[in-house]
C-alpha cells in the first residue's frame, strides 16, 4: 500500500488525524497510525511497537479522561512528523479537561508507560486542553 494513502494528503509525509474521542475511533486511529509507522519509520519491530503503544496510550487517556464530564465526546488529534535532525516527534492533543488523579486504584500508569517507551516526552495542560509530546531520537525516514 502506498503510504500517501493514509497521510491525509500531507505532502511533507506527516501523519495528522483528528477523530472523535471514542474507543471505536481510537482503534481505527491506531490502525491508520500503525500503517504510517510501518511505511515511514526505519526502525526494528520492537522500536516501532514502542512508538505505536506510547501513542495509543496517550490517545486512550484522552478518550477516557479528557471529556468525562462532557455530554458529547470531543476530539483527539495525533500529529507525527520527522524533524530535520531525523528525530520523530509526535503530539497527541485534546481540548478537554486534565485530571491528574487515576479513576481507580489500579489505574494511572499511562504516563509512566509513555515515559518508559519514548526517548523524551512533555505534558502540557491548560484551559484549552492537554498535549502530550513524545520524541524518539533520530531515525531514518523510509522513502519510496
TrEMBL record:
Keywords: ATP-binding, Kinase, Nucleotide-binding, Serine/threonine-protein kinase, Transferase. Pfam families: HATPase_c_2. GO terms for molecular function: ATP binding; protein serine/threonine kinase activity. It comes from the Bacteria. The keyword Zinc-finger does not apply. Residues 20-136 form the Histidine kinase/HSP90-like ATPase domain. Coiled coil: none annotated. The keyword Chloroplast does not apply. This is ATP-binding protein. It comes from Gordonia terrae.
Amino acid at each position: 500500500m502506498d503510504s500517501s494513502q493514509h497521510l491525509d494528503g500531507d505532502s511533507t509525509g506527516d501523519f495528522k488525524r483528528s477523530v472523535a474521542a471514542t474507543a471505536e475511533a481510537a482503534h481505527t486511529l491506531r490502525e491508520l497510525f500503525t500503517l504510517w509507522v510501518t511505511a515511514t519509520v526505519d526502525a526494528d519491530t520492537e522500536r516501532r511497537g514502542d512508538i505505536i503503544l506510547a501513542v495509543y496510550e496517550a490517545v486512550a487517556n484522552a478518550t477516557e479522561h479528557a471529556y468525562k464530564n462532557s455530554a458529547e465526546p470531543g476530539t483527539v488529534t495525533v500529529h507525527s512528523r520527522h524533524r530535520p535532525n531525523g528525530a520523530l516527534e509526535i503530539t497527541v492533543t485534546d481540548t478537554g479537561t486534565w485530571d491528574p488523579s487515576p479513576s481507580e486504584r489500579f489505574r494511572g500508569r499511562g504516563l509512566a508507560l509513555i515515559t518508559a517507551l519514548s526517548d523524551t516526552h512533555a505534558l502540557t495542560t491548560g484551559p484549552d486542553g492537554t498535549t502530550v509530546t513524545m520524541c524518539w531520537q533520530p531515525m531514518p525516514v523510509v522513502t519510496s
